[in-house]
Amino acid sequence: MAKAFFRLQKFLRRTQFLLFFLTAAYLMAGSLLLLQRTRVVLQQGPRGSPSNQALPVPEEMGRLGITEPRTLQSPGPRLLVHMDVLQEPALDQQHSPHWLVSRNSELRRLRRRWFHRFTSDQEPLQTAGFKAMKHTAEHKGTYMGCFTHDSRERTLKGAVFYDLRKMTVAHCQEACAERAYSYAGLAYGAECYCGNSLPAAAAKPEECNIECKGEKGSVCGGVGRLSVYGAEELRAPARRRKNVIYRGCFRAPENITDTFPASLIQPNLTVEMCSEFCSKKEFPLAVIRGQECYCGYPTRRFPLRQGTAGLRCSGAQNASSAAGGQDCLVYQTPVQDTRCTDRKFLTTKSKVFVALSSFPGAGNTWARHLIEHATGYYTGSYYFDGALYNKGFKGEKDHWRSRRTICVKTHESGKTEIEMFDSAILLIRNPYKSLMAEFNRKYAGHLGYATDRNWKSKEWPDFVNSYASWWASHVLEWLKYGKRLLVVHYEDLKQSLIPKLKEMVEFLNVTVTEDRLLCVENNRDGSFKRSGAKQKNFEPFTQEMKDLINRYILTVDEALRGRNFSGLPREYVPR
To answer: Which SUPFAM superfamilies match (predicted)?
Structure first.
């Protein structure tokens, strides 16, 4: 009996050792494979920085009876993939607000999705048997062929769109058709270009060999190649008229023929006729004076800043009511103003490391859109947001310390993180609006609105209690540790876009033309303006919440004035 028991014990020992050895070998092989395929570098963030500790209460807060802000944690380990940052904050769940913990888990999910997309994108497209790939998956337009494409000297000179995750032929066609273009061209599997004339240089059909990111089996161009499809069939007259926007009645420039590069004289001229003519010429403005139609852009001669008042402009949306002479009617055509859409990375590393800092929900993405189109350079990010990258913010994927971008987005407010930057644009927005915007983003993404159920849940009070103190501490910490600051109020930027944008561009040490700034104003909304059903007269804040936020507003206003900055705008005045 003892002999049998000894044999069993010996067998179990061997089995245990074998299982342990196989498990260790499996883990080592997996780690080596991951390192080989993705070249992952694990970089440990700074430990023990002041941002890991509770933010001290300023004297102003103590006098006003404001409670101590919640502990804000600084980012912990950051995972770098080909110098692309995916931040994962390290939070102590016992001392951190529930919503910050939730944001941490959200970033972890984003990291996993990114790894999945990254590894799948590395698989080369098999060109063998490529002729089997189809051009007629779910799109309606005619396939015109494969053409050469140069991003610097574009052959399709109209609107440009990006979707590095879900681009399809149909999506590109519809986008071009809605803007009254006749052709839609796709390149690199994810880029969409629109225009009204076909490229001159044709390429071999097999050179358009990249599969669409959002549609397997369909071709979306190639490297330096465009797959061009017709979009004329999708342009219904009703849709075309719907996309024409009335801009107002303006004083005509002194030499109108020199101001506008294209014109048409037509008896019984209508808005539809003028808009269609200017759309085919790829101009964003259609200007009507009597029976004359002019096409062009906003320029220094015609900036569209002061409309004409008086009875002569009443009912001006009918072309027949324009009597000609000094006044003209201006319409926005579906065509995109492309004078400011070209962007690139800095050719040499920037000597000044500039932050674009804001509290979440304060309009950082919109400010980045304005800066990129005004300067022509990409902006970077301390984080990685796949939704922004997919829509053309290519700096999202660049390492935030590469200094190849004009400035870097950040929501951080710790001493260590602030002192890493040489200067910063500090963007401040009304905390009531910021809190609602960030709550909407949390539940409905960049473009949607949270539901009534979300607002009435227990998460909303927790969110306000946690984030309201962060709004105040973010500004106070940047005022305390920031080396060189330009304070910009979101509301001022929205109301006086050109003057404020000029200040921002000069702060970034970039020279731009007046026409480029006018182009930015013409494309001011960008791709992330929140849409959908917005509730009217909606007030989610209780009186207790208002009392808390109002004290923070007074504290921040006093701190700004103490640093010789202008105080908060009047609309911040406590409710």
So the answer is: P-loop containing nucleoside triphosphate hydrolases (SSF52540)
Question: Is residue 490 over pLDDT 60?
Answer: yes
CA 429, CA 438: separation in Å to the nearest integer?
12
Q: Taking CA 226 as the corner, what is the angle to CA 379 and CA 182, rounded to the nearest 5 degrees? A: 95
Mean pLDDT of 270-289: 91
Instruction: Provide the pLDDT for residue 11.
Output: 64
Q: 55: closest CA among 76, 70, 65?
A: 70
Residue type, 37: R
Mean of pLDDT values over 390-394:
83
Choose one of 178, 202, 230: the last residue of a domain.
230
Averaged pLDDT for residues 159-168? 81
Q: Same structural domain for residues 181 and 308?
A: no
Q: Name the residue with tokens 């050469």.
A: 148
Give the pLDDT of residue 358. Answer: 95
Distance, in Å, from the CA atom of 136 to the CA atom of 129, rounded to the nearest integer, reads 17
At residue 79, does pLDDT exceed 60? no
What is residue 206's DSSP assignment? G
Q: Cα–Cα distance between 89 and 384 in angstroms, integer?
A: 12
The pLDDT value given to residue 453: 86
Range of the domain at 215: 143-230
441, 307: one domain = no
Instruction: Mark whether 303 and 364 lie in a shared domain.
Output: no
Whether 324 and 382 map to the same domain: the answer is: no
pLDDT > 90? residue 556: yes
Residues 500 and 556 in one domain: yes
The answer to whether residues 307 and 210 belong to one domain is no
Average pLDDT over residues 435-452: 85
Domain count, the chain: 3
Reading across the β-sheet that carries 423-428, which strands appear in turn? Answer: 380-381, 408-410, 354-358, 423-428, 485-489
Q: Is the pTM of this model over 0.90?
A: no
Q: Given pLDDT bands bounded at 50, 70 and 90, which one contains residue 197?
A: confident
Cβ–Cβ < 8 Å for 324, 364: no
Q: Is the dihedral of CA 6, 10, 16, 19 positive or negative?
A: negative
Contacts of 7 (CB under 8 A, 6+ apart): none
Residue 131 placed within a domain: no
Whether residue 59 is contained in a domain is answered as: no
428 with 328, same domain: the answer is no
DSSP 8-state symbol, 202: B
C-alpha R_g of the chain: 28
CA dist 132 to 196, 209, 217, Å?
29, 11, 8
Is pLDDT of 467 > 70? Answer: yes
Q: What are phi and psi of 454, to 5 degrees?
A: -65, -45
Q: Which of 72, 76, 67, 70 is nearest to 52 (CA)?
A: 72
Tokens of 148: 């050469």
User: Is residue 334 within 8 Å of residue 244, measured between CB atoms?
Assistant: yes
182 or 409, higher pLDDT: 409
Are both 303 and 416 inside the same structural domain?
Answer: no
More confident residue, 96 or 479: 479
* Strand 225-230 relative to strand 215-219, pairing: unpaired
Task: Give yes or no for a contact between 561 and 74, defined as CB atoms under 8 angstroms apart.
Answer: no
Spatial contact of 429 and 490, defined as CB atoms under 8 Å apart:
yes
| CA 288 – CA 286 distance, rounded (Å) | 7
Give domain status of residue 431, yes or no.
Answer: yes
Mark out the alpha helices in 317-419 (DSSP H runs).
364-375, 386-390, 415-419
The whole-chain average pLDDT of the chain stands at 77
